[in-house]
Give the backbone structure.
Amino acid sequence: MRRQWAGSGMRTALRRLSIYLFTAWATITANFILPRLMPGNPIEQLIGKLQGRVTPEMIAAIKAQFGQGLNEPMWVQYGHYWGQLFHGDLGISITLSAPVSQVLSSQMWWTIGLIGTAAVVSFIIGTALGVLFGWTRGSRADSIIPVATFLQSVPYYFLGTILIMLFAGTLHLFPIMGAYDSSLNPGWSWAYIASVLRYAELPLTSIVLSSLAGWMLGMRNMMVTTVSEDFVLMAVAKGLPRRRVMWHAARNAVLPSVANLALTIGLLVSGSLLVEQIFNYPGVGNLLVSAVGNEDYPLLQGIFLMITFTVLGANLLADILYYVLDPRTRTASVN
Amino acid sequence: MRSMRVPRSPKVLVGLCILGIFILLTLIGPWIAPYDPNDTSFVPNLRPSWQHLFGTTTLGQDVVSQLLVGCRVTMVVGFIAGSLATIISLVVGLTAGYIGGRTDEGLSLLSNVFLAIPGLPLLIVINSYLPAGEQANPLVVGLVIALTGWAWGARVLRAQTMSLRDRDFVEAARIIGESRWRIMLGEIGPNLLPIIAASFLFTILYSVGVYTTLAFLGLTNVSTWNWGTMLYWAQTNNAALANEWWWLAPPGIAIALVGTSLALINFGIDEFINPRLRAAGLTARQRRRVGMARRPRLGFTPVHRSEEIKKEASS
């Protein structure tokens, strides 16, 4: 019996994994096809603009990457493209004149650190608040709903701008821009780490504030539904302390939030890219916007691949978490 | 038709009112704008006054006029993208849910792929490959936004269709010999309406957000006025550090208000689908009036019986 359970769980996990693998393939292929199919041939125009501005080798490299002036059939180009990817070769950034993989690996940690922390913090605080407000539904605490809805609708970048205006511009409580005090040398010194944390406070707050409300509202609604289930009534009837009952209900109500975690990671990443832009914070979002502005297609493609792969990885983690939390997923297909 | 009534909670009413105002501004905004939004002949950095209700920008433009003119493009793109995305999600969700089998697997895989790929970066990539002329075209941008935003609705609609597929009334229609399309559109379709409405509002919300974001990043044509471009110019001119709140606040609050109104209406639909949320929506005064316990008791869903129902029950 136990083996059968493990087997069905394995099947679900493999199914999810195959979806992610397929998505990864689709992303890579889209990256290959899009510049070749788009009307007006953006790459040809770019090469025209670049003539004389960069070295001929670089133009040759871009031509090869995007299949300009090559007489090879499409599928041969596609094969080459995969070959390059397997060697970790994402091409050369036009504006930065450095390999895209190198540029990305130096910048991505800022983004992963900021967004990862923000995601965890806002999920935990938002869910905890949702439990409380769901528990006290119908009381005065319900007036938080319209406020939270409004906060949820405020664009990340707008909230960030307002925070800058209030706390950095007017009150001078926080540093305005950047990721660390530029007079310090990056390294493992206390002063540097402290300055990194200090500079991350405001961007972090703006992401947490604007994504908190979503978790809170979702959790509150689930909590309201769960609290009227029979097992909660049973727990009350048994005379369990209220705190235990609340914990009991919350554990069951949190499952949809965890399931949503995977879906919202993409949204969170998208929003956070903007926060970097506003706070002039280094990282992938800033890189992405400058790549678009400079028509740096190799860099743009590399960033897109990196973001998608990171989001897919995070999705996988969220799936595993769900699997661990909900025993029903492990027995679902046993009849 | 009794069952189709959307609950008239204050939340929904407030949402409808705010949305109504913005729809009105979409229609008449450019006509009632006091000045030309591109006119730079005013004194720059004026605080709000009777001549300039929301002041002027660093470039000497009137903020109110930009807000009013920009309303139309923002809302129209949101509406176009929302409608297109809803149509795609309806077609995909209904087909996948009703037909099932291989069709379902293929379509579900497709929507899972679009759910997993982060929308905004994909949008930025597609947008950057568009010719410059097309980037300014709200229709094209709306189309691209719709392409990245339909998957969530499709997933929800598919799940609901699957739960309806084997109900008796659908079975009956099948036995009568109604065609597949007729069953999907005539029998199952109407039962999906609340979910279609919710997903429509949600995608409009998403589209307005994404469009203003693209504009804020300067990735659409920055000379077309919408709320995102207003914030783009404010950001480029460091309005936050100069403390020019009258320039920053109107477009940001307008976006947030449109979002809030759509979300509030969506709450109404949620309460309609899930009645347990409804009782919690009553205010303290309403509860007292209908004689309901002041504080909801654990384990019980407070139910309000209207006079009509009591009469029906007693007869």
DSSP finds 14 helices and no strands in chain B. The mean pLDDT of chain B is 77. The radius of gyration of chain B is 24 Å.
